[in-house]
Write a structure and sequence with these properties.
The protein has 403 residues and is of the alpha/beta class. The protein has helices at residues 16-31, 46-57, 63-70, 72-87, 119-126, 153-163, 197-205, 213-221, 275-285, 315-324, 355-365, 389-399; strands at residues 3-8, 35-40, 92-95, 102-105, 112-116, 130-134, 137-139, 145-147, 168-173, 194-196, 226-230, 238-241, 254-257, 261-270, 293-295, 303-311, 332-345, 372-376, 379-385. The chain folds into two domains: 3-174, Carbamate kinase, CATH 3.40.1160.10; 257-399, VC0802-like (2-Layer Sandwich), CATH 3.30.2130. Helix content is 33%, strand content 26%. It is globular, with a radius of gyration of 23 Å. It binds adenosine-5'-diphosphate, aspartic acid (ASP) and magnesium ion.
Length: 403
Amino acid sequence: MKTVVLKFGGTSVGSIDRIKKVSKIIASYKKKRYKVVVISSAMSGVTNDLVNKSKLISNNFDLAEYDALVSTGEQVSCALIAGRLQHIGLKSRSWLSWQLPIITEGNYSSARINKINIKELNKYIKSGGIPIVAGFQGINKNFRITTIGRSGSDATAIMLAKYIKADECIIYTDVEGVYTTDPRQHKKAKKIKKIFYDEMLEMASLGSKVMQPTSIQDAKLNKIDIKVKSSFAFKSGTLITNSKKSFSDQIITGISSTKNDAKITIVGVKDRPGVAASIFKPLSKNLINVDMVIQNISQNGKNTDLTFTIKSEDLKKTEKLIKENKSISYKKLSFDRNVSKVSIIGVGMITTPGITYRMFQALAAKKINILVISTSEIKISVLVSAKHVKKAIASLHKEFKLD
Ligand code: ADP
Ligand code: ASP
Ligand code: MG
């Protein structure tokens, strides 16, 4: 008997009708004689609503209480799914993280799953039951509720698949799989049949919301193949894997973009060793993630300009930290909230020269100005004005024959 882990995202359980629909999908696996474990997210919009409530209570809401609060959405959806499965004659019950438990380590709101105790779960599965496990949440060594970062149910599913040694792990969502770019942003996006972990990890980290980056790291580390499918339509999906069998020969696999980046330029900082470190030290201490960085070549050997990007929600805090930083001096500080990062991703670029040129040429042809560039072995990212993102994606999608 094969074991399958089925994960349902927020839209897939977004209404009573949707919950009835996913219960049918779950029942169909049971009919095919699978052992089934289900992970569910909260109904769509619920977690955002809880996050907003915490902000209305305090602009400095305690993170441990934040986790206790925002993890509650999953309890509702899991109980509703279990209730519906019982209604159609199947044995099912819900499980919250502390009831297994799912042990996490690390900071509140961004903890990571460390271990899952599957003893009770296994007994229940053996007895013919279908466990419905709450995604996104865990408990730490102080027995307090934790959450593992937004969209974390993906990672819960992968880690459960690891611990119960599942034969398959299927992520059900509201699109038919992983596309060459967000199908809601670009009509010509195409479904990808197979994608390597490394490419999916870059796409997810660079803004393709369909999978959470940590979950892909976990899948790669534990060699767990993931299928991404639609819970709305009965269609073949995307396989995320390391297996090299029958991959297409596309050079570029996908294009991602971000929404909430901000660019900061510090004009006229001293051009001497240690200055960049002095600027970034307080940011790192305050858990502000610096993404792209460029430093201009100094014209006079004394002063230079430093530009970097952060998430726009960190902009106010960053501005304050730079202004309060006594160990640096500068002439001017400027900000731009309306920037986005557009990236092309593909393992094919390792062996194909000229990709950077083609990317820049395609953007230049559309008169799109590149503000910052960063590259790795399998991706090239450019920062552009947010108003150009759609145009940039369309031109790159065409240039790299993804249309
Ligand atoms: P879920 O609630 O099921 O976890 P998400 O909203 O987290 O779903 O992810 C699905 C969404 O990801 C899609 O609706 C789509 O708009 C977006 N998306 C972004 N980039 C891509 C991509 N390359 N392929 C597919 N979907 C993408
Ligand atoms: N409900 C959580 C969120 O909205 C976790 C998830 O959807 O995976 O972030
Ligand atoms: Mg998601």
